Queue: 2 jobs
Job 1
Amino acid sequence: MNPMRDRFTKDVDKSVEKYTSSISYDKRLYKQDIAGSIAHARMLAKQGIISEKDAERIVMALTSIRDEIEQGSFVFRDDLEDIHMNIEARLIEKIGDVGRKLHTARSRNDQVALDMRLFVKEAITQIIVDLKGLQSALLDVAEANRDEIMPGYTHLQRAQPVLFAHHLLAYFEMLQRDVERFRDSLKRTDVLPLGSGALAGVPYPVDRDFLARELGFSRISQNSMDAVSDRDFIIEFQATTSITMMHLSRLAEELVLWSSAEFGFIELDDAYTTGSSIMPQKKNPDVAELARGKTGRIYGNLMAMLTIMKALPLSYNRDMQEDKEGFFDTVDTILSTVEVFTGMVSTLTVKGEVTRRAADEGCILATDLADYLVGKGVPFREAHVIMGRLVHYAVEKGKTLRDLSLDEYKSSSHLFEEDVYNVTAETSIAARNVPGGTAPEQVAQQLTRARKIVQGGDG
Ligand code: ARG
């Protein structure tokens, strides 16, 4: 019979066992669970709650259980509900009654909170490293194409010319905020819950600061009831990941558009595109599309977690076991998405002649020509009206602003001179020489700053 069934007269129904079991997915917490148990056993001995000799045997057995799991010889049992029970049962199987002492001054409620916090901390640390890798890939492409010009868009309509590097650096900024958000959420995750017991604390002289040091936490929780029922750190992780995925879905969308025949701004490497089973000519940006799609699933995991926690009374409730599957899915998805994006971005080719042409077509310099008139003393609003009429005229004639004769210009304002033809995409870009603007000088400074950030300096 199950070790926790002593107050009952029979075993749980098979359907209940299956329904309540979490071992199929919480086995992923084995490393954290064993690390927590080792620290707990050492603390119990240090405080004289168990003997040093018993602690030694427990630690040795736990270490060998970890090896069994890693070598694949450990047998996970569904009837033992979760990873905590599975490891403890094996411990007792290995060293007998001594193993029964490990759970002194502990509950699965503070144990699972500990395991999840350790897991989230590791995940955040890895994600930050990987996000920096993606930032670095974006920077490489921006630097390699630092002179390329493209149309900047609003409403997905050509708006003003920009440097291609400036456009990519916008994604660098988004990812930098993500890195900062992950770092910030790490502070609130980095709190040791162990020692809270089931909910009220434990009636033993435990040393929680020792546990925190052993397990690498910088703080201990301050309220045992909160500690066993707080899942904010998982919600924050899911929210932060959702924002990152939202950013990646925007980049994905641009890569899908840019690699289309209609835009033709970039070419994705063969290794990062897929073919069609029916149309031999197709080269599909499936990676970008899937990232866009997976973003929906990640939002779903956040919503699920918020809903699981909604209106739960203090303290631990079994509902909280439902925190795990969506969480693991979110961790796996963000890590694989960032990894594949790093490869996709670093191998793409920018077609500078196409982006340059697109930045030169139509009436994209209308704002600059309005600014030209402002330079000759026309108030901006009036210049805007003049240019609006001129664009209307050009469109009616089936021309672009560039095609208009000086007489045509002059008929809308006598202030236009021959030098109106000196206004180009390059002068438009160079004129925007304000901090954060697209002028080459500004973008060069931003590239240097960004490089410093990914290299670890002030980032
Ligand atoms: N498997 C449980 C979870 O993930 C562990 C805690 C169980 N505690 C309890 N009192 N049943 O939340």
Job 2
Amino acid sequence: MKKKLRSQNWFGKKGKDGFIYRAWMKNQGYPADEFEGKPVIGICNTWSELTPCNGHFRELAEHVKRGVWEAGGFPLEFPVMSLGETLMKPTTMLYRNLASMDAEESIRGNPLDGIVLMGGCDKTTPSILMGACSVDLPTIFLSGGPMLNGKHRGRNVGTTDLWKFSEANRRGELSQEEFLEIEAGMCRSDGHCAVMGTASTMACMVEALGVTLPHNAAIPAADARRKVLAHLSGRRIVSMVKEDLKLSQILTREAFENAIMVNAAIGGSTNFVVHLLAIAGRVGVPLDLADFDKFSKKIPLLANLLPSGKFMMEDFYYAGGLPALIKELKSFLNVNAITANGHTIGENTQSAECYDEAVITPIKTPVKNDSGIAVLKGNLCPNGAIIKPSAATPKLMQHKGKAFVFEDVEDYKAKVDLPDLDLDENSILILRNAGPKGYPGMPEVGNIGLPKMMLDKGITDMVRISDGRMSGTAFGTVVLHVSPEAAVGGTFGLVKTGDWIELDVPNRTLNLLVSEAELAQRKKTWSAPDLGYHRGYVKMYIDHVEQAHEGVDLDFLKGKSGSEVKRDSH
Ligand code: FES
């Protein structure tokens, strides 16, 4: 027997209830037969003028609707909280879980049978996917697509260059006039950051997980084929509802392993770790930090994209996009993992071709052998910390140096340009109180710029360690996500300037070379900081947020509640 559509629990009702559910909808001009058993497709839209990377989403949603109508569905678009990376203070990560709650409750509370999730800028992707996982309806993801390559005086520029330009500007090597000229040429089209930063990483993640149609990750936002993909996603979700192909049937352990391996091969952002852990936590798939090291260890870097390589997302699409890369990687992957179009990831990429081996390298001649995420353990990070070897300086991967501690971001800003800091190029810079609770919100500050006195000496990289995150567009020998963070009493909070620290990435260790007895002594005088947040969402966040190695979700949001609504007030 055909399964009754969930939306019919609203629109299929008789009497007063059915009247209320339908009558108010009719003020938007929908004829009566729209309510008579068509799959209702919710288009969960993170459009906002305050999220410029998603600024084109209203138009894109219209193309989704075309596909839904065409396939016999009834599309209804709704907004959810949008998180604009560049504008929102203090950090969008503070609100990822809040946006996920918005998406979850908006989906569950409404008469929807299937969902098209529309995300682009960094946190808009994981947040709405997390929320959708906790409901578990048939769901397809549509990313907004990257910007076209930025252009400046005849050459490509992308977000990764910003760090280099700003340091050149600080050193006086780049004029303010040219700095502003670059600003005007970098973001010249619709879309999200054009390098393999966090947004592109998230777009690749959802494609590798199988919750999108093929080519979701790389088609530029400005390319008409992005609209075609939106149209096809709209068509497909109607079939997914008819097949009752739920998110949890796609998001299996195999899919998560694939996502980790693909992330390694694309040189994806370190932010991938906290987001994938959180998504797995919602859908109920066991996944831990060690899995990231285990599954990315053997994977070479195949995508020659900034910040680990030299090209950008537009080039990646023209070279064959993610399907071409996945095909090259297939001997490692779980090729039988099912995807949103009902085919396996192996079937979807069978006929994919690489058109530019400089951008997507053959597996035998990769960009680098070291890729993915290395997970470190040691007394400085008993629950783990991570580093992205492909973005680091090889000679610093095994390094012993004296700590120089910045107590927090403000302390760093106050000191970084001083001419007489007690450090040299072998020092290890510590930035703490940037973790989930300690900031709060775990901002992207781990890749702190080098002290001016080091830049003046021509030093371009130093080991930096933080309990915060770093932008996916950044690079350097930066250890991140130290867990437990300083603000909850981890060893990281006990480090003093002058302590010796040893980093050994090949052997996956990070240790503070201070005796247990001395650390116990320091712990006696340590106390948790009072951050001054005593009300509202931020208070709830601080009380419930989990540590980096667990995905930084709120403890009570783990798992799912399904799509059933138990009570009805009409
Ligand atoms: Fe939105 Fe980079 S600022 S993706």
